[in-house]
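Example for tutorial group B:
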């Protein structure tokens, strides 16, 4: 946790003078079920914010709303003061906001490097297939390849460069997914359960890579079930239950927050919260 995050008020909707993403009055219902009803949140810039909450709390729906994969019924979402409500994912990527998925989307029949190049271009919503045909390369495409190679090196995936993504382990594909998200040089990176299905050794390197993002001027928001991961890498935690934000705070504050403990008790009577996979 950085020194500044400790100075934010640990209450739902708390103001942050360095907010990059602001959500106001966002609501989404499915029939009679209100899945998301968030009055106000502000996400601090160049920090790692975890979004947690019990099953069905609305985390994924809220994530979808923020990343343009679902439409709000009402409310406004702003990125650096610009209204991005309802902006489709590829246009959000062009504005510097990208996401990864819980189920990886790497294309099995393409090589790692091809997946990376696709990451650069499909996020911009351009025609990208020509980028895979060497004879048609432009200067821009060569730059993209150089960037891809640099990121692969950092992610320790250089040895997989020319292998089909389909030959990778689940954990390596998670790494590739995050590496690909960085191709657009995003200022906001949204990670949907980045550790799910990743073996402990790879998980540790993934954590280290995530921890580095704020120092490069990137804001991270991630949904996570594992409280150890949340405690280890988050600067700030936002807790949802039944569609609403019920608590915000540093990881330490959240651990001892009564509303949070109560929200989880229904599912985990009498268990030590630190041992519970908070889903
Ligand atoms: N497309 C949909 N149609 C109908 N109901 C939906 C839809 N998507 C989500 N819901 C409902 O909205 C509520 C919130 O679901 P959501 O998936 O956002 O929760 P979650 O916090 O991500 O849960 P989990 O931790 O189990 O992934 C749930 O009651 C869910 O059944
Ligand atoms: Mg979910």
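The residue assignment follows.
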């Amino acid at each position: 946790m950085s020194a500044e995050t400790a100075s934010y008020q640990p209450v739902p909707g708390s103001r942050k003078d360095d907010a990059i993403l602001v959500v106001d009055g966002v609501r989404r219902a499915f029939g009679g079920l209100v899945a998301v009803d968030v009055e106000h949140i502000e996400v601090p810039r160049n920090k790692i914010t975890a979004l947690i909450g019990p099953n069905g709390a609305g985390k994924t729906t809220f994530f979808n709303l923020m990343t343009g994969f679902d439409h709000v019924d009402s409310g406004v979402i702003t990125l650096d003061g610009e209204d991005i409500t309802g902006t489709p994912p590829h246009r959000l990527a062009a504005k510097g906001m990208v996401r990864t998925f819980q189920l990886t989307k790497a294309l099995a029949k393409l090589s790692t490097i091809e997946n990376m190049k696709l990451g650069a271009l499909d996020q911009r919503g351009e025609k990208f297939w020509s980028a895979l045909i060497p004879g048609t390369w432009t200067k821009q495409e060569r730059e993209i390849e150089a960037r891809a190679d640099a990121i692969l090196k950092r992610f320790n995936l250089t040895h997989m460069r020319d292998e089909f993504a389909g030959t990778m382990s689940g954990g390596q594909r998670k790494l590739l997914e995050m590496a690909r998200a960085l191709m657009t040089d995003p200022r906001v990176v949204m990670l949907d359960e980045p550790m799910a299905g990743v073996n402990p050794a790879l998980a540790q390197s993934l954590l280290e890579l995530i921890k580095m993002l704020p120092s490069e001027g990137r804001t991270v928001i991630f949904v996570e079930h594992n409280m150890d991961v949340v405690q280890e890498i988050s600067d700030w935690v936002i807790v949802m239950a039944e569609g609403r934000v019920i608590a915000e705070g540093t990881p330490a504050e959240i651990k001892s927050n009564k509303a949070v403990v109560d929200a989880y008790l229904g599912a985990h009577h009498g268990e030590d919260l630190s041992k519970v996979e908070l889903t």
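Residues 122-126 have pLDDT under 50 and may be disordered. Compare this with the pattern of hydrophobic and polar residues in the output above.
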